[in-house]
Write a structure and sequence with these properties.
The protein is an alpha/beta fold and 153 residues long. Helices cover 25% and strands 22% of the residues. Strands 5-4-3-6-7 form a five-stranded parallel beta sheet, with helices on both faces. Strands 1-2 form a two-stranded antiparallel ribbon. The longest helix has 10 residues. The chain starts with 23 loop residues before the first strand and ends with a strand.
Length: 153
């Protein structure tokens, strides 16, 4: 690989270069002696910060992603609203458990489009990522950190 084609990013997702942020970000490449401008996605109405009164789980609805741990936490904290965004092989079992345990504080959203997911992340008080298996860098965690959210993993 030629040196002038390499750009090193210390942290690939930061508030200044996230697709969740508006605007542009410049990356310097001293090896090239110039600048490279990168345009990032813009989502109308999405801003960093603001918290509403819910906890968010966003991800594949599977046992190894910790979905049943989310439901257990919700059962123990009935005064707190939980939103679950995602789809997967355990969705029917999760729906049944929510119904059987009368978890009125859990809202199962199913699959959500990326723009809506961004708004959910930005609106959450915190984001849960209780993966039970080795997950080297889950995108949900990176996106939540960019949004300035507390991540409970």
């Amino acid at each position: 690989m030629e040196e002038d084609k390499i750009i090193v990013l210390q942290l690939p997702v930061t508030p200044s270069n996230s697709p969740l942020e508006r605007g542009r970000n410049d990356f310097s490449s001293p090896a090239r002696g110039g600048r490279r401008r990168v345009e990032w996605a813009q989502t109308p109405g999405v801003r960093r910060g603001g918290s509403k009164d819910y906890i968010l789980f966003a991800g594949r609805i599977t046992e190894e992603k910790g979905i049943y741990l989310v439901l257990e936490i919700a059962r123990k904290l009935p005064a707190i609203q939980f939103k679950i965004a995602g789809d997967g092989p355990e969705i029917e079992n999760v729906e049944l458990r929510i119904k059987n345990e009368e978890l009125r504080n859990v809202e199962l959203l199913g699959f959500v489009e990326y723009e809506r997911l961004q708004k959910l992340i930005f609106g959450a008080r915190l984001v849960l990522a209780p993966s039970l298996w080795y997950d080297p860098s889950p995108l949900a965690v990176l996106e939540a950190m960019v949004a300035g959210k507390v991540v409970m993993a």
